[in-house]
Write a structure and sequence with these properties.
25% of the residues lie in helices and 8% in strands. By secondary structure, it is α+β, with helices and mostly antiparallel strands.
């Protein structure tokens, strides 16, 4: 599998986590709920945030991130599976690879692909307005 199989990339619909690597797959900023499924499903490509990893995995992670874009067919399949398993669609695809786009369509989740026009279905990201603070910091006083 060529490393530029997913190019050209389309403009992502959502801002990505800053510590994610650039490329076709990304995690939407402030959307990961730390469920653990994506890093468990595709551990070679999805890891916990850089701060958590840099601290030797001490404490609690803040979010998952795409730390490596898929380079093999096996990694691609696991990334698609992790994207499908993300309960809040925090992982998205902004590539244009026909095979990958078709995989998302066949699995019934074309809305995770930024290259596919919206179908009129409301996604999790469109249904919930983004809070100014991360959801787990609701008890903290406002600035």
């Amino acid at each position: 599998m060529s490393t530029n199989r997913h190019e050209p990339l389309v403009t992502p619909r959502y801002e990505r986590e800053a510590d994610s690597i650039t490329g076709a797959f990304y995690v939407v900023l402030d959307q990961c709920i730390v469920c653990g499924l994506p890093p468990e499903t595709a551990p070679a490509n999805i890891t916990w945030d850089a701060e958590y990893a840099g601290a030797g995995c001490d404490g609690c992670p803040q979010h998952c991130r795409v730390s490596k874009q898929p380079e093999t067919d096996e990694e691609l399949e696991l990334m698609i599976e992790a994207t499908e398993g993300s309960c809040i669609q925090a992982i998205r695809y902004c590539g244009t690879d026909e095979y990958t786009l078709n995989q998302f369509k066949m699995r019934g989740i074309p809305e995770v692909c930024d290259a596919i026009p919206p179908t009129g279905r409301i996604t999790v990201h469109e249904a919930v307005s983004r809070p100014k603070k991360a959801w787990w910091k609701f008890w903290a006083s406002s600035p």
